[in-house]
Amino acid sequence: MIVPPQMTIGSLNQITPEADTKQNSDLDMEQFLMIISKAMSMPSLDGGSGSGGGNETDYIGQMVQFGMLNQMQELTETMQTTMLMTQQQQALSMVGKQVTLKTDADQLVSGAVEKVRFDNGYATIQVDGAQYSLNSIIEVGA
Rounded to whole angstroms, how far apart are CA atoms 3 and 59? Predict the structure, then answer.
């Protein structure tokens, strides 16, 4: 998952809006409707009423599918952002609490959470001067 830069705590990107950059493959609803209207207005060579691509209901079906795809992409981005913010809040709430962690060497480390760091938006905790990811926590106490 790519973490947007505006999601890092203390980021100036939260204050100043980032310029929208579109790639050549990006197509918004307005552009899609323009293409559909051009295709519907162009006569076909075989004497039919529209271009050889289909009738008006085909275009409406494509428009609905395109709109649904856009909404699903926006929902996915929103869910990723929400999950990241929840993880950050959970990490901040652990400061001062006793935790037991499992290290990469399969050893248990216990101690109080001294601080929380954010690396590219992801939270890590510091226990006894060492950094650990949140998924290494196996127990949290008071």
Answer: 36
